[in-house]
Amino acid sequence: MNKIVTSDEITAILPEIVAIRRDLHTYPELSFQEFETSEKIVKFLSQLNIDNQVVGKTGVVATIFNSSAFPTIALRAEMDALPIQDDKTCDYASKYPGVMHACGHDGIVAIALGVAKILQQKSSLLKCNVKFLFEPAEEIGEGARALIGADALSNPVVDRMIIFHLANSEPLGMEIQEKVSTAEICSLDLHVTGYSSHWGEVEKGSDAIHAASETICAIKKCSSQKREMPSVIGIGTINGGVKNNIMADSVDMTGTLRTFLPKDREEMIRCLGQDFQKIEKKTNTQIKMAVEMRTPPIFNDPDLVKTGIEIGQNVFKKSRVILGRTPYLAGDNAAFYFEQIKGVRIVFFAAQESIINYPLHNSRFDFNESIFPYAIETLCELICHIAVEK
């Protein structure tokens, strides 16, 4: 494959891109509160003379437009941070208490801006239009639908979509899943109703907390059963009871149900329902369960997978490019884009050397900024080659 950009061109912008990332990390903002972040993005794009607009309060859509006869390739970049205290010791640690970029979105925005700068410099050579979607509220699963509702996929109509993530679980490299990439995410709400009494008269009550404990054991059992593809059910919150000497009459639990195949989701719900009926009879309680699909799975387009792997192998060493066959149990609301547009999801690995790599959503999460030139080059080349193949 003939290269569109040179290493020197990317190296020239790296100090600026690193500075952007560190500034965003220092001043993170939560979902739908990314006002400063969007202002910085708009300022950078405007200085490049790239048309842009703020949509849905904090989202930013920008377009390098060449011709209506050309296809339009979109690159998504999430903007929001998480409600986590930054416990790192470094110059760019978050200055906002209880808010942190613990999922790499600061780096994703910086990389996307680097791609925008390089492709704007090359705009006269492009055989496509390039749309940049700086998406708010990805962490709460609402950003993609907000941008879709604001017609971000129109004017010009997006023909292909690229999304990417950063992970620090492996040395510098990348992975693309062969087929399904992320899971279907369902919310799980459980309400256990018992009958309160004084603990001195246990025979007069029905203990909702005890029933809840049995419910959690049933969830663990159903989750651990072997299936064709990975799946999980987990409880994230549990609340019940009012006083130490009163038998609890209700417990509320919330959790997640993650699968890749509809039959697995249905089987897990059936398994839970059967076990809950037994628990109700045994404990003289009632268990109500509500399951709501929040995010569909992401399926990578096979042609984009093939092109992405080939380009990745030209950028990285071949041994550092993985064609994944095991999908991630994480979810991504970008699946709503993929329901309308063929797309591909890439994970760039960026483990730091000789130090502990704390995982995503950890208060000490960080990544190796040396991934920036590789990611920028891969994305620039992929965008340009997709346009030719389209």
Q: Which descriptors would you attach to this protein?
A:
8-stranded mixed sheet; Peptidase_M20; 4-stranded antiparallel sheet; 24% strand; Amidohydrolase; Alpha-Beta Plaits; 2 domains; Aminopeptidase; 390 residues
String of helices and strands = HHEEEHEHEEEEHEEHEEHEHEH
Strand order of the largest sheet: 1-2-4-3-5-14-6-13
Total domains: 2
Arithmetic mean pLDDT:
96
Based on secondary structure, the structural category is alpha/beta
How helical, in percent, are the residues?
Answer: 25-40%
Q: Please tally the β strands and state the result.
A: 14
Tally of individual helices: 9
| Uncertain segments | none
Give the biggest beta sheet.
8 strands, mixed
CA(first)-CA(last) distance: 16 Å
Question: Any idea of the CATH topology of the largest domain?
Answer: Aminopeptidase
Task: Provide the CATH superfamily of the largest domain.
Answer: Zn peptidases
Strand content: 15-25%
- Based on Cα principal axes, name the global outline: elongated
Query: Architecture of the largest domain, according to CATH?
Result: 3-Layer(aba) Sandwich
**Measured on Cα atoms, how large is the radius of gyration?**
24 Å
CATH class of the largest domain: Alpha Beta
